[in-house]
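Section: protein folds

Sequence with per-residue C-alpha cells
===
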Amino acid sequence: MKVVGFNGSPNKKGNTAGAMKIVFEQLEKSGIETEMIQVGREKIRGCMACHACVKSQDGTCIFNDDPVNEWIQKMVEADGILFGSPVHFSGVGGTMKSFLDRAFFVASVNGGLFRHKVGTSVAAVRRSGGIPTVDALNKFISYAEMIMPASNYWNVIHGRVPGEMEQDEEGKQIMEVLGMNMAWIMKIIEHGKEQIPAPEPVTKTWTHFIH
C-alpha cells in the first residue's frame, strides 16, 4: 500500500512538511510506502471551467504545462492521500487550492477517480486560521467520497519559522495519532474489501435553484 502526500507550502522543509513527515513516520512503521510531492513552489493555474475534462473522459485536465495531470495519476494509483498546507489569510495556499480545484473536478467528472481512497489533511500555522484551512482541504476529500481518518484533536500544528513545530508537543501527537489511524483504516479496507463489497457508485444528481 502507498500514501502520496502533497505539500502546499512554498517551503520544502518548513513546518507543513514537518507535520506531514510525522504522519508518514507512523504509516511507514505499518509497512505503508510514502511519497512527498512539493506543490507550493510550482506554477499552477486555476481551473478555467472549460469542461474539456468532461468531454474527453480520459482523466486529465486539458492543460499540460504543469504537473497537475501527473499528480492526478499519482492519486489514482495511491491507496491513501495526505494534503498539507500552510495558512495564508486563514485559508489554503493559492497554489495548493488551484491544484485541488482542477484535480478534484477532473476526478469527479471522470467516474469518481478518488472514490473510497483514504484521505486526510493537515495545516501548519503561526497563530490562528488552521482549522478553517483543514476544513477547506477536507471539503475536497468528502466531496470525492473518500474515507477520512481523524486524530485526537484538529489536524493543526503551530510554528512560525521552519522547525518551530517541533516545540508543539500536542501538535506532534496529533500528527502521530493521525498517522496511526490512517494506517489502521487503510489496512481494514485492504483486508475487508473482498468480504464486504463496496457500494456501487451512483450517477450524480444536479439540482439548480435558479430558473
